[in-house]
Amino acid sequence: MRDIIRLILAVLAAAIVAAGPAAAGQAAMPAVPSGNAACRACHKETSLAGSVHEARACLDCHSGLAGKPGEPPHQAKKDIPQPTCLASCHTKLTLPAKPGESPQAYADSVHGQAYLQRGTQDVARCWDCHGKHNIKRMSDQESPVNRANIPLMCSRCHADMNVVLKYNIHAEAPYQEYRQSVHGRALFEKGLVTFAAVCTDCHGVHNIQAAGTPRLQAKNPETCGRCHVLIFDQYKGSLHGQEALKGNPDVPFCVDCHGEHTVAAVNSEQAPTAKGNIADTCSTCHARPDIMKKYGVPADRIKTFIESFHGIAIGLGDKAEANCTSCHSAHDIRPASDPKSSIHPSQLAKTCGQPNCHPGMPDKIATARIHRDVSKSPAGAPYYVQKVLFWIVIASALVTLVWFIPEMVRRFKRNAP
Q1: I want to staple 155 with a disulfide (CB 3.0 to 4.6 A). Which of 2, 166, 175, 374 is the partner?
Q2: Domains of the chain, residue spans
Q3: Measuring CA to CA, which residue among 347, 357, 297, 298 is closest to residue 326?
Q4: Could you tell me the pLDDT band of residue 41, with boundaries at 50, 70 and 90?
């Protein structure tokens, strides 16, 4: 009986103590629940459900929040520490299938250096690309880093002229250009998600470097060679390819001939590699006296081609005539001294005798020079024919003047009053 009385008195005492602060006008502070529930008490709209981080705690990313018992862990949004993905979870430099896929590579990227080293806030950070609380796996079609969504995701910054001007980005409208390119059309119009090249295939995933970086991945022929395997095999054996893989900046890379974001189908009229545009594309290098002199190549190759029968025909709109690549090939360009070259003496009959050119051409005719400057005597007969025609025109003009002027004087005198 005494034990029962003592229990009743203890319960009454506890009730009096609990009611004391309320009776004195003091509101009792509810205890803050632990774990994610503590954050969800205020951030009701924030949920990790369905995210790859669904099993993680809020404080795993927003570390450093430690409020007093019964008090919110922070007073304002600006007090919430930004996530430290590389230091908290993604800490190991893994070796994925493609270089630069490891998150640790971000620290050395153009974005990572700006954010982690200089504290720049308006550059791409982890959550700007992957999302914040709703992070999906890359294979999820709703993920912003799903292959089908990457061009649009990158355009958030790279289509913003404020960003382009502020950081002097050389490509002003890469997304619009990409959409019209052969790569963009393959992705957006044909749905070739696993086949079409997207931004990260060329520029890298986490290891994106700034324009002007030596051996920039987006300009490296080996980058294009990951998809265009057979063409790259030809290119790397060519005069251009051998030097390019050594890091020589003087030789043309893939993007120098095909363009960067505006890569068009080879046969389309706007492509730099179209038949009517090839001479202009090649002239980017072959019309530069400094480059040609450096490598012992005649600087008149573009000029003499334009003045040739082939060049004149192309200039008049004939699409069947031979251009630079018809003779020198497109990717396997070699010096004339190389037996594998399409312009080696042993190969000329085959090169000129292509089905669409001069089939059955005799070897002797095939050896005729194409690049001849008719203004110089080494051109042979064309030079002398030109000279003869020139002097015939001059002589005709002089005879005409000698006959015309006296005749005009005589007529003037006859008609004088």
Answers
A1: 175
A2: 22-81, 378-417
A3: 357
A4: confident
